[in-house]
Specification:
Elements lengths: L2 H34 L2 H26 L8 H30 L5 H9 L2 E7 L11 H4 L1 H5 L1 E8 L2 E4 L11 E7 L3 H9 L4
Antiparallel strand pairs: 1-4, 2-3, 2-4
Helix pairs in contact: 1-2, 1-3, 2-3
Length: 195
Amino acid sequence: MSESDKAHWEKITRDLVTLKNTSELMIDIAYSALLLNSRYLAEVTINMEERMDKLHIDFQKEVLSRTEEETDPLELIGIIRMGNVTERIADAASEIAEVVLRGVEPHPVLGMMIQDAEETVERVVVGSYSPVVGKTLKEAQVAEETGMWIFYIRRNDHWMRVKPSTRLEPGDLVVASGYSEGEEDFTQLITGKTK
């Protein structure tokens, strides 16, 4: 395999991983939107779907550009199908989000669960002087300090699921869920501003 071919297949692999990760994250956010009855998270899912459509089209173009090379067409079909699966997952996430945005009454059991939940969803931008800047989530102990659990971060228009090793940076938009009593403490900790 030539260096050019190798670089091309590596790009296709990276793009497919991006499609997979994005569609998985969309499902997570859409379910969170549904369970927390969060219009904000539903809108995030819809916006991600628009990005996903572009990623998927670019991916297909990249794969199909190999038709000029000596590549087995069945290989290309298999790769395109994998991309199509990620697109269907993203579409399903959008459908879940649409339920929240349309204000469709949830099933009575889900409705009772939402009504009884004392949780809220908060989104806050990490301030330059916040004590959490440069710390991992494990080091920052946000949940222990505030009762709010960070579950997604948007950094430079890129959404990501967090892990204990995720470092917080100034300008990160963090999305957290927890009890409403922790909202003020959470906002102060993340922004670095006190009243």
